[in-house]
Write a structure and sequence with these properties.
- The protein has 465 residues and is an alpha/beta fold.
- It folds into two domains: 76 residues, Metallocarboxypeptidase-like (Alpha-Beta Plaits); 311 residues, Aminopeptidase (3-Layer(aba) Sandwich), CATH 3.40.630.10.
- The chain contains 14 helices and twelve strands.
- The chain has an eight-stranded mixed beta sheet, with helices on both faces. It has a four-stranded antiparallel beta sheet with strand order 2-3-1-4, with helices on one face.
- Helix 6 crosses helix 13, helix 9 runs parallel beside helix 12 and helix 10 packs antiparallel against helix 13.
- The longest helix is centred in the C-terminal third of the chain and has 21 residues.
- The protein is globular and about 70 Å long.
- The chain starts with a helix and ends with a helix.
- The N terminus is likely disordered.
- The chain binds 2-acetamido-2-deoxy-beta-D-glucopyranose (3 copies) and zinc ion.
- The site of zinc ion has 4 residues, from loops.
- GO terms for molecular function: metallocarboxypeptidase activity; zinc ion binding.
- Its cofactor is Zn(2+).
- One of its GO terms (biological process) is proteolysis.
- InterPro entries: CARBOXYPEPT_ZN_2, M14A-like_propep, M14A_act_pep, Peptidase_M14.
Length: 465
C-alpha cells in the first residue's frame, strides 16, 4: 500500500513537472552580426516587438547577437531581417534538443568520472537539492574545516545556502574570500565551477592550490538565487531573474507571460541603481526591481558581505556568470575614459590579465579583461560593484565563463571539466599575482612598490613584443 502510494505520488509529481516545464520544441537560435547603427536599430525594433528573445541584452555594431525565435514568429523574423538586408545564421534548429542534451540522464552503464567527490561529479549539472545535500556531506566529512551557512531566505522561502572553509579558525587577522554563484538562474556552469573549486580546496595537494585554500577564510555560495535556479529545472530552462511577483503584469502574448515574475538580481544592488544598463520594465530581463535592494536575495548578500567586511579584509569577491569569457573589473557604470575609478584598478587589471593569460594556456580558451564599458556594456546595480564600493574588498571581479555563444547558457555538460580545469589555472595565477602585489601583507608601501614594478615589467614586455 505504501509502495503504491509513493508510486502514485511520484507519478503525480512527474506529470506535474512535465506539464509545467516550458518546451522549446522547434525554437530556433539565430546569430546576427549588425554592421552599423542602422542594423542595431533594426534588431532593437525586433526585440521591442517581442519577435525573438535575445540572449544578448545589449549590443553594438560588430557584436554577435543570438536570438531565440519561437516557431510561430519565424517567418516574420526572417522577413524583417531580409527587408533590412541583415545576414542571419541558423545556429540550432531545435533548442529543446540542446536543452534535453544538457541534462540528459546518464546512459545506463556509464561509469562515473574519476572526478567524483562524495555525491557530486562534474559530468552532469545538478539541481539545488543535490548541491545542498553535497554541502551537508562536506560539513560532516570535514567538521573542523567546513561549516554550512545560510545567509538568508529567498522569496519562495528557500535557504540561500553555502559553506565556510576555514583551515585556520584560530587566526585573528582574517583574510577573506567570497565566491558567488548563479545569481542569474540559467547560468548553470557558474554552480559547476564553484563546486569544483570547493573540491580542489579540500583535496588538491598542489602547493599553490593549498595556499589559495588555506590563506583565506572562504565563504562560498554556489547558488545565491535558489528560486530562479530551481525554476530553470522545473519551469523554464532560460530563466535569468529571481521569482519576484511584486511587479507581475502581463508582458503580452509574444513573450512568455510570466516574464514580469522576476527581478534581475544583478541590477538590484543599491549602488548607482537604475542609472545605466538596467530596465524599469518588469518584462525586461534586466528589470532592476521596484527599488534598490528590494529583493531578499540582494539584501541577504549585502548584509552578509558587510558583516564579513567588519570581521576582516576581504581579498576576493568573485561572481561567476556565463557566457562570453571575460574578467569584468569594477566599476561597471563608468565610461571607458573613467576606467581608473576603482582605487586599485591597475592592480585588478594586472591580476586579471595574468590570470586570463594563464587560463588560456591549457586549451587556448581566450578571456578578455576590462571594465564593463570596454568588454560588455555599462551596467548598474550589480553585486560585484556594490561590494567594491561598500566594503573593504580589494579584488572584485565578475567572471563570465564559457563559451562565446556556440551553446551559450546551454553549455554541454562535457565542457564542465575542461572549463573548471582552465578556470582553476587562472585563479591560481590570480592568487600568485595578488600575493606578489603585496595584498597578503598589510604594508601598503609594498603594494605600491610591486605595482610599479609590474607596470614597468608590463611596459618592457610590450616593448619587447
Ligand atoms: C524576487 O524579488 C522580489 C522583489 O520584487 C522579492 O520579493 C522576491 O522575494 C524575490 N524572489 C526570490 C526568489 O527571492
Ligand atoms: C512595481 O511594484 C511596486 C510595488 O507595487 C510599484 O511601486 C512600482 O511602481 C512597480 N514598478 C513597475 C515598474 O511596475
Ligand atoms: C563609491 O561610490 C561613490 C559614488 O560613485 C564614490 O564617490 C566613492 O568614491 C566610491 N567609493 C569606493 C570605495 O569605491
Ligand atoms: Zn549573468
Amino acid at each position: 500500500m505504501k509502495v503504491l502510494l509513493i508510486c502514485l505520488i511520484l507519478i503525480a509529481i512527474n506529470a506535474n513537472v512535465n506539464a509545467e516545464y516550458k518546451s522549446y520544441l522547434n525554437y530556433k537560435l539565430y546569430k546576427v552580426n549588425p554592421k552599423n547603427q542602422d542594423d542595431v536599430n533594426t534588431l532593437k525594433e525586433i526585440q521591442n516587438n517581442g519577435i525573438g528573445e535575445f540572449w544578448n541584452e545589449y549590443f553594438r555594431p560588430e557584436d554577435d547577437v543570438r536570438i531565440m525565435v519561437e516557431p510561430s514568429w519565424e517567418n516574420i523574423f526572417l522577413e524583417r531581417l531580409k527587408e533590412a538586408k541583415l545576414e542571419v545564421k541558423l545556429i540550432f534548429n531545435n533548442l529543446q534538443e540542446i536543452i534535453y542534451k544538457q541534462k540528459a540522464p546518464r546512459q545506463a552503464g556509464t561509469v562515473r568520472s574519476a572526478n567524483s567527490f562524495f555525491s557530486l561529479d562534474w559530468d552532469d549539472y545538478y539541481d539545488l537539492e543535490q548541491i545542498n545535500h553535497w554541502l551537508d556531506e562536506l560539513a560532516e566529512a570535514y567538521p573542523n574545516i567546513v561549516t554550512t551557512v545560510v545567509m538568508g531566505k529567498s522569496v519562495e522561502d528557500r535557504d540561500i545556502k553555502g559553506i565556510k572553509i576555514d583551515y585556520h579558525p584560530e587566526r585573528t587577522d582574517k583574510k577573506i574570500g567570497f565566491l558567488e554563484g548563479t545569481l542569474h538562474a540559467r547560468e548553470w556552469i557558474s554552480t559547476a565551477t564553484i563546486t569544483w573549486i570547493v573540491k580542489e580546496f579540500l583535496t588538491s595537494s598542489d602547493p599553490d592550490v593549498r595556499a589559495f585554500a588555506e590563506n583565506l577564510e572562504w565563504h562560498i555560495f554556489p547558488i545565491v538565487n535558489p528560486d530562479g535556479y530551481v525554476y530553470t529545472f522545473t519551469g523554464n530552462r532560460m530563466w535569468r531573474k529571481n521569482r519576484s511577483k511584486t511587479n507581475f503584469t502581463s508582458c503580452g502574448a509574444n513573450v512568455n507571460d510570466d516574464m514580469s515574475n522576476g527581478v534581475d538580481l544583478n541590477r538590484n544592488f543599491d549602488f548607482v541603481w537604475m542609472t545605466v544598463g538596467a530596465s524599469n520594465d518588469p518584462c525586461s530581463n534586466l528589470f532592476a526591481g521596484p527599488s534598490p535592494a528590494s529583493e531578499p536575495e540582494t539584501q541577504a548578500i549585502s548584509q552578509y558581505v558587510l558583516e564579513l567586511s567588519d570581521r576582516g579584509e576581504i581579498i576576493y569577491y568573485i561572481a561567476f556568470h556565463s557566457y562570453t569569457q571575460m574578467f569584468v573589473i569594477p566599476f561597471s557604470h563608468v565610461a571607458s575614459n573613467q576606467m581608473l575609478a576603482a582605487d586599485n584598478y591597475a592592480n585588478m587589471f594586472e591580476i586579471a590579465v595574468r590570470s586570463a593569460e594563464k587560463l588560456s594556456q591549457r586549451f587556448g580558451t581566450s578571456y578578455s579583461v576590462g571594465i564593463a564599458a570596454n568588454v560588455l556594456y555599462p551596467m548598474s546595480g550589480t553585486s560585484f560593484d556594490w561590494v567594491k564600493n561598500y566594503t573593504n574588498t580589494r579584488i572584485s571581479y565578475l567572471i563570465e565563463l564559457r563559451d562565446m555563444g556556440e551553446f551559450g547558457f546551454l553549455l554541454p555538460a562535457s565542457q564542465i571539466i575542461p572549463n573548471n580545469l582552465e578556470v582553476m589555472d587562472g585563479l591560481i595565477e590570480m592568487d600568485k599575482t595578488t600575493k606578489l602585489l603585496g595584498y597578503y601583507t598589510t604594508a601598503d608601501a609594498s603594494k605600491i612598490f610591486y605595482s610599479l614594478s609590474v607596470v614597468i615589467f608590463g611596459l618592457m614586455a610590450i616593448l619587447v613584443v
